[in-house]
Amino acid sequence: GDYNGALRPQIHYSPPIDFMNDPNGMFLDANGTYHLYYQYNPTDIVAGNQHWGHATSRDLYTWENQKIAIYPGAEGEGIFSGSAVIDVNNTSGFFPNQTNGVVAMYTLNTAQEEVQDIAYSTDGGYTFTKYASNPVISINSTQFRDPKVLWYAPTKSWVAVISYAQDFVIGIFTSPNLTNWTHASNFSHAGLLGLQYECPNLVSLPMLKNASLAEPLDPANFASTDEMYILQISINPGAPQGGSISQYFPGTFNGTHFTTADAATRLTDFGKDNYAGQFFYNIPATSPQISIAWASNWEYAQLVPTGPLEDFRSFMTIPRLNVLANTTRSEYTLLSYPYPYSSLYTTPTPLANSSTLANTSILYDYSTTIPSGALSFSMNITSIPVANTTGTANFTFLSSITGEYVRGGVFLNGGNGGDTPVWLDRSHTYGFSNPFFTDKFSTSLWRDPDTQDFRLLGVLDRSILEVFVSNGERAGTMTFFPQGVLDTVILGTNDLNPGVQVSVELYGLRSTWA
Ligand code: FRU
Q1: Does the annotation count 22 as an active-site position?
Q2: What are the transmembrane regions (predicted)?
Q3: ipTM exceeding 0.95?
């Protein structure tokens, strides 16, 4: 693949050519290599003829494309979404004298049915052999898919969550050996239904001891005794903003049953381009869990521009670290924060920064200093006291060639009880438009009156912007397709009242594909 095209993200994963959707089978191996598989049609730039593509990385940003890992066996078959685990103890019997055997569990889709199959790899996840006695779960349904497997240590069992998509049910299955599965319970009709449930994930997340800590990802802040799970369920179509989106439910899991902590529905991302996210297998349980999602939406994924140099469609989000925290006025909030990327900084100190940006802005032309077009920016807002805060902080990335831009910002409505609305806008990019390519996105969060500090962190990468607000209490993913390269950034503030301090930083990121 040619990764130089103007729309091709430079620190995000995208397939060499052709069509990609959901991340699949993600795991960390014992040598420290991360494996990403993905729904892949190697013969077209729309979905269909689904395979498992494969890529590997040591740092989750620098990816090496590998050979296709799992192929359909016959015309009309699709290797649909699923997951992978390392069978360290050889529970399956596939791996005598081996501790690094990998088992993938996925949905085999045909016109007649969707069943759950497995395939095993004795070379650490590069090549797979399909199990001779597939399927391992079959219920005579055409809408039964996306197994995500975890290891439940207290009962020494494998657990799979699988979607009965059009019944709005997530089935929980258990197995001693990955081949014989028993239905244990159902979790159903929770949250947003949309028209289908897809891609469930059940994962244990560390709880933060103190959500007001400035740096949530310091391992010292995790309470290892207070283990919680989330069940994440993607819905498509029928998201509130249209098309596909993911939601999560915090709760407890006892090996067979998942019980929600409350009746609330929480969205994983406030944008429209974050779907079918999956959590890596084999990340230590006391660490933040790492996720990657597909940065697109089924409403337009198969219609967006394919890039001038190479016909490919879709990118993944950057890897995110995830923990749970009790935040102001909301318990069990998912905090999602970028997996660290400071190794990609083009300079040790920021390319542009300002420690006090009071009712002014900095304009920085990055056309020559950041040839990748990938950058990171942050806006730190310190207000004393929060209740008196007024004003806005804003960012704009524009093309000096075409005048196109994407932008966003934060309203500091301290007087309204700390309500802090955040917005994103892609309406002024002209490479793609469509009734479903929603222009603007917003969210709100309550700022802790005692914490005062507030941070917005963003990663811009040619045709995708991801923002992380208030230590990841809200995350927003937005793709866009400009006709001209974005090369200028404006970071600014308006109407700040005295006492509000805004400092900004801008770092260039080097391409991991160059
Ligand atoms: C979600 C999904 C899954 C399915 C896969 C097929 O985007 O529809 O439910 O397994 O894509 O590519």
Answers
A1: yes
A2: none
A3: yes
